[in-house]
Amino acid sequence: MKLTKEQIQQLYEFTRKHYVEHYDLQTELVDHLANDIEQIWKEKPNLTFEQARSISFKKFGVFGFMDVVSERQKAMSKRYWKIIKVFILQWFGIPKIIITALMFLSFYSICKTAFANYILLSILIILSLYTFYKGYLLQKTLKNNLKKNGKKWMLEEMIFRTGMGSFLLLPINFFNFINIFHKESQIYTEWFSLLYAFLFTFIIILFYIVLEVLPKKAEKLLMENYSEYIYL
Amino acid sequence: MGNQKLFKGSLQTIILKLLETKVKMYGYEITQKVKEITKGELTITEGALYPALHKLEAEGLLDVEVVKVDNRLRKYYKLTENGKKETVNRLALMEDFLQTMQQIVNPKLA
Predict the structure, then answer these.
(1) Cβ–Cβ contacts within 10 Å for residue B63, how many?
(2) Interface size between A and B, measured as CB pairs under 8 A
(3) Residue B83 pLDDT exceeds 90
(4) How far apart are CA A61 and CA A51, in angstroms?
(5) Does residue A143 contact residue A152 with C-beta atoms inside 8 Å?
(6) Best label site of A93, A146, B27, B50, fewest CB within 10 Å?
């Protein structure tokens, strides 16, 4: 006996109730449960759909789908970082390396001025404010997407929540970094100038990719990463 | 079952081996295949199978293809080029491990 369309929809609902929020993972688990229910029916045809579903779900153990969800999140986070890495590398290849080099030289020059601390701190303040503002806008877009499609994708959530928010606090950590090393001296040494020039160039590129590039390319990235996307 | 503990550490290698023999497989099919080959001696638990598959996918060893079957979507896994190479490596490692275990467990035979 095969499951009906309505029963498949009920299985989606069932996974949602058991804390599987993302459509990509729901789809895989729904197919698994459906296969198992059909197999159970072959051996015990008298069982109802709910009874067979309950037997199948118990096989996932006491924590239900929780282990599967958390491991999936880890795996997807790895993929998210891999995507970021691909975009970062573009900035170290031709032609973008020219902009990277110019940025590096600008930051290096700033570090050589007497106002280095003030300028770098101002950049960090602007970057922090922009990150929070953009983070808010991206969250809003994510909510609208969910309303429109009714489906949540794990990678989409990572893109619009900027790696689950881990980037939002990064500029603030840089404040401490500057304060710790430069309480007394105002002029940066050669090594610190090079280090800061590198860090600031890197953080600007990273934030540009995370806050601007990835959200704009979200649709394309989802299509590349989810082959089920074409069935929507 | 005591066997299950020994089996758990080899789960990824088993998945790779199965995918080497069959072009593409989906999660449930893998659990059934293992049951069939081992005549029910070993069963892959659902809570362990999908994390293993997702890990292999994240490592770039597996590729995914989603196909509409009956009235639902089915996610098939297949080996990537890297996956094929890694399968050879992991199977060789497994062979070595089994031989070493043989030396410990049954020194006369080894």
Answers:
(1) 16
(2) 79
(3) yes
(4) 16
(5) no
(6) A93
